[in-house]
Write a structure and sequence with these properties.
Layout (H helix, E strand, L loop, with lengths): L37 E10 L3 H12 L4 E4 L15 E2 L7 H8 L1 H24 L7 E8 L2 H18 L4 E4 L1 H5 L9 E10 L2 H14 L3 E3 L6 E3 L5 E3 L3 E10 L17 E10 L4 H5 L7 E4 L6 E4 L5 E8 L8 H12 L8 E11 L6 E5 L3 E5 L8 H13 L4 H7 L9 H21 L1
Parallel strand pairs: 1-2, 1-10, 2-7, 4-12, 10-17
Antiparallel strand pairs: 3-6, 4-6, 5-6, 8-9, 9-10, 11-14, 11-15, 12-13, 13-14, 16-17
The structure holds flavin-adenine dinucleotide (FAD).
């Protein structure tokens, strides 16, 4: 395990309302990001202040482009500032789906780029001294015997077809040494994956983008994009004229670009943070400070913060309503896994939206010559969104080969049109929840 530690800074940037533990543990200060006012000129206008947009802005600014970024709320307002913080290679879908769509060779390129995304995250954290508690080690845990077979087959296939040797099967005492519970029959330990404080990482990217010359504007929702050879983006009090526009709004916008409507479905995911555990309690949960996800389709995932809070995610809602008794349900899950934590208090709970595509592969592309987008990470974007920004900057700089590998992935709209889409998705989710129980 290679853990990066930073002195714990007092919060320097308070966001209102303090909706999550992340927001109450901010350690990165930004220069002011005033709302856009008046007309400005930029080479590139980026819409969205999450990891995709900020990484795009940073990499473009480093290449010498003038960048203006518009964020509807505050930097990190979206999924990037609320997530489980797991930094994983791969995609939200399996590699078989990618192979079927793009062929084995392109699938290998995609896999290698997803590994690059993890390395890029580590590199950005180090290069820009981002205090985000980056730590390595991840467990992909089986919940039932079907998962044991599937995970072992996955390990074998990744070694054979992709030369990926970073997965190790653990069970019995070897597993209990990394996660102290009897619930899992086994797990894959992945040393090339880890976790971090997602909001501090996102704010760190914003700080780096500012230092590189990017202009960031909070509370500046893009209201309309004027398309054409000289595009322009309008906000309530301003306008950006640019050569290129990058849409990096993921699950958090609808309607700005009608061609994209229905290509992603918005789903809310919920998390809690417990009170800080004692050192002894933490050692009886994840003694090596790994992150963990279980192998269910509607999965649970957790990790410890540097302050030893258990950060646990795992309930989904497709209609935007918080699941009933969220804290009690999370409490019951934690107690089942770690009986010694029964009754530990849950200090925070919050939700965030993920953008899911029909095949769960990310949806990158361009509309016309100068409008680019990257969205639909399907709950697997913490590392990949950073790489997306780098690839978008490469593509705008004239080297689009790597971006185009992803952009070649075919995507279909969710069936059912506007009215039936949600009921159909709910039906599908009930099916998978049922399957998870079998
Ligand atoms: C609860 C939760 C847990 C997750 N856990 C993990 C995990 O452990 N590992 C993992 O890999 N992935 C995880 N994800 C997914 C991951 O967080 C996302 O894939 C990733 O953060 C996407 O980044 P993004 O920049 O594309 O989108 P976002 O971070 O959502 O950013 C989009 C931004 O666009 C802004 N915006 C929207 N419309 C406009 C507009 N009109 N004008 C200006 N700005 C606009 C929004 O305010 C928002 O800030 C999780 C997501 C959630 C919600």
């Amino acid at each position: 395990m290679n853990t990066q530690t930073f002195p714990s800074a007092s919060p320097v940037r308070r966001l209102e309302p303090a909706a999550s533990w992340y927001r109450d543990s901010i350690a990165v200060d930004l220069h002011a990001c005033p709302p856009l006012a008046g007309e400005v000129r930029a080479d590139v206008c980026v819409i969205g202040g999450g990891i995709t947009g900020l990484s795009t802005a940073l990499h473009l600014a480093e290449r010498g482009h003038a960048v203006t970024l518009l964020e509807a709320g505050e930097i990190g307002h979206g999924a990037s500032g609320r997530s489980g913080g797991q930094i994983l290679p791969g995609l939200g879908t399996d590699m078989a789906t990618v192979e079927k769509a793009l062929g084995r060779e392109a699938a290998r390129d995609v896999w290698e780029m997803s590994r690059e995304a993890v390395r890029l995250t580590a590199d950005l954290v180090e290069r820009h001294a981002i205090p985000c508690e980056l730590s390595w080690g991840y467990l992909h845990a089986a919940v039932k015997s079907r998962h044991v077979r599937e995970l072992k087959a996955f390990r074998d296939r990744m070694a054979r077809d992709y030369g990926y040797e970073a997965l190790e099967w653990l069970e019995g005492d070897a597993l209990r040494e990394r996660v102290v519970t009897d619930v899992y029959p086994g797990a894959l330990y992945e040393r090339e994956a880890g976790h971090l404080h997602p909001l501090n990482y996102t704010l760190g990217l914003a700080r780096a983008a500012q230092a590189a010359g990017g202009q960031l504007h909070e509370h500046s929702p893009a209201l309309a994009i004027q398309r054409g050879p000289k595009p322009a983006v309008t906000t309530q009090a301003g306008r950006v004229r640019a050569d290129y526009v990058v849409l990096a709004t993921n699950a958090y916008q609808s309607g700005l670009v009608p061609e994209l409507s229905g290509r992603v479905m918005r789903a809310a995911n919920y998390m809690i943070a417990t009170e800080p555990l004692t050192a002894d309690q933490a050692a009886r949960v994840l003694p090596h400070n790994d992150a963990l996800s279980d192998a269910n389709f509607v999965l649970d995932y957790y990790r410890l913060s540097a302050s030893r809070r258990l950060i646990y995610g795992g309930e989904v809602s497709y209609d935007g309503r918080e699941p009933r008794n969220l804290s009690a349900r999370m409490d019951a899950k934690i107690a089942r896994l770690f009986p010694s934590l029964q009754g530990v208090s849950i200090d925070y709970r919050w939700g965030g939206d993920v953008a899911i595509t029909l095949n769960r592969a990310p949806d990158f592309g361009r509309l016309g010559a100068n409008l680019f987008y990257a969205q639909g990470y399907s709950g697997h974007g913490m590392a990949l969104a950073g790489l997306a920004g780098k690839l978008l900057a490469e593509a705008i700089g004239g080297q689009s080969e790597r971006f185009d590998v992803f952009a070649a992935m075919p995507h279909r709209r969710f069936p059912g049109g506007r009215r039936l889409r949600l009921p159909l998705l709910l039906l599908a989710t009930h099916f998978y929840k049922l399957r998870d129980r079998l």
